[in-house]
Amino acid sequence: MISVALCTYNGEKYLPEQLESILSQTVPVNEIVVCDDGSNDATLAVLQKFASKAPFPIRVFQNEVNLGSTKNFEKCLSLCQGDYILLCDQDDRWRADRVEKQIGYLREHPDTDAVFSNAIVIDGNSQPTPATIWGEIEFTELPQKRWKAGKAHEILFGGFVVTGATLALRRSCLARLMPFPVHVPKLIHDAWIALVLSLERKIDFINEPLIFYRMHESQQVGFGAKVEPVRLKDRLRRDRNEKLAPIREKADDALQVHALLRQLPFVPKEKLARLNVRQRHFQLRASLPENRLLRVPYILREVMAGRYQHSSKDWWLPALGDLLE
Questions:
Q1: Is the bond into 179 cis (omega within 30 degrees of 0)?
Q2: pTM metric for this prediction
Q3: Does residue 246 lie within any of the structural domains?
């Protein structure tokens, strides 16, 4: 049995297009489970209209209070009855063979619990752009090879790779993943699922764009605008606390994620060593002396040990910033 876990919130504008793309799949699904997080537009009416013609059940649950994206997906996944579940956002569009490709992959790889894919970015008018989500996050050939070589967890320690809207998984793995943590803001539901399963080597990818991922102003979760690099003159002028705030945040995030993962008995503790090194690296950067000369030995030690790779693939830039600012 194949379920779709669809979370909605004021999605009337793009939801019909998404629902039609699910209806048009080459391999049909058996149910759509919808958890609505308090919509006050016509979202529920759209769902009711679609349910009247769909050849499979549409089970709609309305939250009494707003749960937010992570807890809403947790609820939705827990209500799915299928052996396989495809996660679904309200404002995207599926390629016609998404179900066929991903469920086929999971059936052919019984030791894999989840699989994700690339996606073509579309705009608010449903027009494709030249961008893909893997291009946006730089999940290029080199990190893909590292992933296949068993280093997926190390990649995910450094940032976001798996987009939940492209994810399909076995319902049987949810018992190990729930409840989803919410006290680390950046560790939303898809990031947590991917990270835990990567530590077990139970998540893989299909190198195809199986959905059309919509970027628009009103979406709750997305990539957002790219951060402009800090110019050298700004580095010399800005307040030091402005520089240190995001570094402290990364150190705190790594510490909290490490603590969460250590509580899972099935996670190999030796795989958390790199996360521990990452946390200490950012903690050191956030604690460098005010005096620039006194910073030099600490910075050189991190450079020689190759630990600035945790900060950026262009490691010399944060190293230079630590020295100058």
A1: yes
A2: 0.91
A3: yes
Task: For residue 183, tell me if it sits in a domain.
Answer: yes
Q: Is the pLDDT of residue 33 over 60?
A: yes
Question: Do 180 and 268 sit in the same domain of this protein?
Answer: no
**87 and 39, same structural domain?**
yes
Instruction: Note down the domain range covering 10.
Output: 2-214
102: nearest Cα among 158, 26, 8, 41: 26
pLDDT grade, residue 139 (50/70/90)? very high
Q: Give the chain's mean pLDDT.
A: 93
Cα dihedral: 38, 41, 42, 44 (round 10): 0
In contact, 192 and 178? CB cutoff 8 Å: no
Give the torsion through C-alpha atoms of 88, 92, 96, 97, to 10 deg. Answer: -50
Q: What are phi and psi of 71, to 5 degrees?
A: -70, -30
The 10s digit of each residue's pLDDT in 188-207 is: 999 999 999 999 999 999 99
CB-CB contact of 3 with 33 (8 Å)? yes
Q: What is the mean pLDDT of residues 266-288?
A: 95
Q: With respect to residue 247, please indicate whether it lies within any of the assigned structural domains.
A: yes
Give the separation between CA 283 and CA 278, rounded to whole angstroms: 9
The H or E element containing residue 102 is helix 98-108
Per the domain annotation, does 227 fall within a domain? Answer: no
Largest Cα–Cα distance in the chain? 72
- Same domain for 163 and 239? no
In which band, very low, low, confident or very high, does the pLDDT at 225 lie, cut at 50, 70 and 90?
very low
Indicate if 36 and 86 belong to the same structural domain: yes
**Residue 283 confidence (pLDDT):** 97
